[in-house]
Write a structure and sequence with these properties.
Blueprint: H1 3-27, H2 31-36, H3 43-54, H4 57-70, H5 75-104, H6 109-116, H7 120-153, H8 157-204, H9 211-221, H10 226-229, H11 245-261, H12 266-273, H13 278-314, H14 318-322, H15 325-337, H16 345-384, H17 394-414, H18 420-444, H19 450-470, H20 473-479, H21 481-486, H22 501-520
Helix pairs in contact: 1-8, 1-16, 3-8, 3-12, 3-13, 3-16, 4-7, 4-13, 4-15, 4-18, 5-11, 5-13, 6-7, 7-8, 7-15, 7-16, 7-17, 7-18, 7-19, 8-13, 8-16, 8-17, 9-13, 11-18, 13-15, 16-17, 18-19, 18-22, 19-22
Length: 538
Amino acid sequence: MNTTAFAILTVLYIIAVIYLGYLGWKKTRGSEDYMLAGRKLSPWVIGLSYGATFISVSAIIGFGGQSAKLGMGLVFLAMLNIAVGVLLAFIVFGGRTRKLAKKLNAVTFPDLLGKCYNSNIIHLITGITILVAMPLYAAAVLIGGSEFLSITLGLSYESALVIFTVVTAVYVILGGLIAVMYTEAMQGVIMIGGMIVLFILTYALFPDLGGLTGINEALSNLTPPADLVSQGMNGWTSMPDFGSPIWYTLVTTMILGVGIGVLAQPQLVVRFMTAKDEKTLRRSIPVGGIFILLTAGIIYTVGPISNLWFTDMYGMDAWSYLHNVDQIIPAFIDGAFSNSLFGLFVPIFMIVLLSAAMSTLSSVFHSLGTSAGFDIWKSVQKIRHPDVEPKTSMKLTKYAMIVMIILSLVLAFCMPANIIARATAMYMGLCACALLPAFCMALFCKQPLVKPALWSIVSGLVSWFLWTVFVHIAESSQLGICKALFGVDALLGQPWQLIDPLLIALPISTAVMIIGWFICRNQADVPAATNRELSGKE
């Protein structure tokens, strides 16, 4: 790799990040600025920030590596991300979220649910859910960026983790959400440009194959490894056998788990709350959609194609050569481009990965800090002293953010290999199972009730946890709790062991909420602020 070029690009990048962080710090005048960027950002900033938060380094490294292993079926995930994560999220959820948050003066996702239901318990349990689940995602993002940095620069994995963490933490802690979203917008532009170049250069590696059609044909003719064929794989350009282990992994965990889970991610919901009006949100939609198409769509295409290069170089596909999906994309970029005419692209792509990692990390760190230092602290104080409105401070939130950043770093050191995509799917699935039904009732029900919402959150958490620990073999075999208690890696048999916890826990939490609503609808369980007033003009 051209270390000089990388050093120059890194310095320029860091200067830009520091400058935008300084602008955020300068414009932050109070809690609303720190928590919600003053509710005054432009459609371009919101759309790019949303996309950059959504598509992290875990998508590029983790899911990109999974696409290299399992094939182009992951392109369906990109399409679902656009349909659900952008179109449905902005059109159906975004406007109501923004309006309700403004009406209730809510500044975080747990704060929104707590005020809508007029419940400190819901406020508290939502904050705790985020605090427990989100460090897993933060650690996965840290691992993804560090894998590439260590491979390309020869740094130790531990050093790379610390570098990523410290640089991101500085501007998040100091500048709040304004700094976060300003830097994310810049990082989003870098990611789009870098992914377009990656797409072009990847196809340029195979000039003798005749372009798109020839490369697709060559990939179709490539023989997949025997261990994957035995699990249902039919090649990199075809979907796996229906009902096979790989089919369940691809469809239930990656496509549905991540595609649906995006709707209840706190760090994304907050983006809706930063818009000043409906027009701003609507104008953000094409920005977010195009961003995901040009990032996730490209990497899920490049991943499978990388097998052609690995086969030419090493006589075997990427998975057979490395047996670690988290190393496939870094190894491909470094190996295919560092010693060629395209050598300058390696340091450019490092900046892309820095942008992808830091954009998501900054949002996650911000959400963790506000959950611990604002939501949990405030709700506990209100439960202890119901007649006194607790005082909150940015200082407390910043201290909490530091603690949660350190926890995420420690977790990243402890997590095993091949974990990036799986940890991401786990986080998104847990958020959906626990929070999505209650979130939907808060937005769309004219009479949102406290007890059904609380029952739904608890049932989603419990059912997700039980299925993860005792049934879904991808996690239960690693955790070892089921083995210790029952002598087997997972309870039940096939195909239950392969079905993602989201497909079990989300229907349970939804059913509990609906049944609970019918049971409680005639009781005096109506919060002070219902959604009857949301249909009118602001």
